[in-house]
Amino acid sequence: xxxxxxxxxxxxxxxxxxxxxxxxxxxxxxxxxxxxxxxxxxxxxxxxxxxxxxxxxxxxxxxxxxxxxxxxxxxxxxxxxxxxxxxxxxxxxxxxxxxxxxxxxxxxxxxxxxxxxxxxxxxxxxxxxxxxxxxxxxxxxxxxxxxxxxxxxxxxxxxxxxxxxxxxxxxxxxxxxxxxxxxxxxxxxxxxxxxxxxxxxxxxxxxxxxxxxxxxxxxxxxxxxxxxxxxxxxxxxxxxxxxxxxxxxxxxxxxxxxxxxxxxxxxxxxxxxxxxxxxxxxxxxxxxxxxxxxxxxxxxxxxxxxxxxxxxxxxxxxxxxxxxxxxxxxxxxxxxxxxxxxxxxxxxxxxxxxxxxxxxxxxxxxxxxxxxxxxxxxxxxxxxxxxxxxxxxxxxxxxxxxxxxxxxxxxxxxxxxxxxxxxxxxxxxxxxxxxxxxxxxxxxxxxxxxxxxxxxxxxxxxxxxxxxxxxxxxxxxxxxxxxxxxxxxxxxxxxxxxxxxxxxxxxxxxxxxxxxxxxxxxxxxxxxxxxxxxxxxxxxxxxxxxxxxxxxxxxxxxxxxxxxxxxxxxxxxxxxxxxxxxxxxxxxxxxxxxxxxxxxxxxxxxxxxxxxxxxxxxxxxxxxxxxxxxxxxxxxxxxxxxxxxxxxxxxxxxxxxxxxxxxxxxxxxxxxxxxxxxxxxxxxxxxxxxxxxxxxxxxxxxxxxx
Length: 706
Ligand code: 3HC
Ligand code: NAI
Hints:
This protein is α/β, with parallel strands linked by helices. It has 30 helices and 18 strands.
């Protein structure tokens, strides 16, 4: 049989009696319209061709099939739909075998489930991750997976979206056998020939019996429903998954499929799908900063960290976890011992929980060294400074780095706010200096702002991005300004929140309103977690340059003056019982708020939760627009990723700029103008926002143009 030229994305070749159908749609073999058409015509051809006894489906390149082509969602549908393709595969009168390697995810796994036999090789990643995109399996997965592997495991796969490796897939019954080698094609062919030799018949997943124990299946379904009600509040698709899977128990297969389709289309139409898919693509776009295209990263094996406090220790752990060797510099032996203990504490915690063996901890710590003399950094490829937030202290550290580090070493600062151009200018190699702004706790938080000062060379920046990849961080390129992207915008919306507190909302109402919006915590809970002293120090530093006409709310200062810095002092905006991390509202804080309102001559008014969110988001979006306008962020999507990855912004809303697009920029601008009637200095519309509204454009148009 000649290769199928009707669809370049799927080719067919007859090998003996087996029709080899290869999906070839780089980069990840997503099932777009060409793949769907190609699969259908290959199956049709196999039915018609006497010479074909069985069909073997494989993926070309590094993956089987990574799922439906998510770029098509929201576009007009192009037939055949994927459920139809899967039904045609399953209905084949000749056995269909899927041989899986790499990603077999979402629609990819659904294609495999529609086949009659499945083989997987090492390194395979199976899963139904649709939930992470605001979706549910929409090509039979909700009906076939439970019938094949049972209610509880199928629901767990769909609701977590996690990937399953080869051994587990075999144990679950998702695949029938594992290949002995990594050669998917050879293993798949051998399996197909063996099946033919044994006279194996077609075996349809729709007829599988793993739900036969109805009572146990019902109990698993009820448990999942209760879990979703408790843990996925505010999310759309997890509820739809449970509803669809219930049909696998209660309805005939074809009716279940029809219900799945209806619910899937509801998910497609949901704003959460738009937000989550935006977040998925935005996280991949941010990695493509201009410097990563223009230059090659420098070598990255050994690292130095200066300072072993909260951040230095966390950064060291992140680097050790990535397999790097790390040398920590502290000011004296006592501080160094504390720094080492901070690092060890993290691993001891894992050992205590049984997630790491004592030997594995020892192996990691063997890559860790400490010193009080800078010469220990002479061979480091990259050094991250995380000492006190003080320009003179940082410059003294950089002078030492300048003295001892080898030529080409990347010299980074973790400063939160200080001017990195000034730090760079203080040494003789500004081309090697940049900001690597980690977030606390640095070994856990996903975000890394890569701050690019004027004189740094492109390959040093590319090295920053390479380091982020190694550490599995989401790196966002930021320009130099006070607070870079994240903390600069944070200062503005936090000010909007403080003003609302002074005007009549309680900090507890504000936190509750933002949790309702989808944040895991409100801003005052976050402040208590991070330590109120950090923001207090920043406010004091900025006091001298603050516009004297700007409104300044002193409530937070009154709280800090009492030494109430949050969880670490047992008291902040909330009261914390001994060792408790969840705080109680504090009547004394409310009394302070009251006293401050009186002092400022303000008669408190009521705020609805909706108004709180509207003001908070308007402040965030407006400053986000300024940050893009000034080139501090490359595009609106860089602001989105910063807030989703580093500031708890609800991922299903895509990020503040995506949220603004969904609300509509004219409405956001109208809000800002309305609020500006009370305080025109604070609520100055960003020139970029005004311009976009005037030209009837949205933020996403800037993402696409970049
Ligand atoms: N559709 C369209 N493009 C996709 C895609 C998909 N399903 N999956 C990945 N891509 C694109 C990425 O955007 C990226 O494009 P770029 O090079 O232009 O930036 C490129 O493929 C490579 O992706 P990664 O950078 O993520 O490559 P990795 O090798 O790191 O990871 C992966 C590969 C594990 C497959 C990862 O891309 C992934 O998890 N993809 C999404 C899988 C998924 O969610 N599938 C379910 C889709 S929904 C569905 O199937 C509905 C069905 O039930 C009807
Ligand atoms: P920290 O006070 O916990 O730790 C600072 C450490 O630096 C101390 O262990 C101290 O002994 C050491 N140190 C001070 N001077 C030194 C010197 N000359 N040589 C060697 N070591 C020295 O402070 P933290 O919170 O770790 O902050 C460090 C830096 O990270 C600051 O620039 C801060 O702005 C920034 N940052 C902090 C975040 C946070 O949430 N704590 C988040 C992101 C950045």
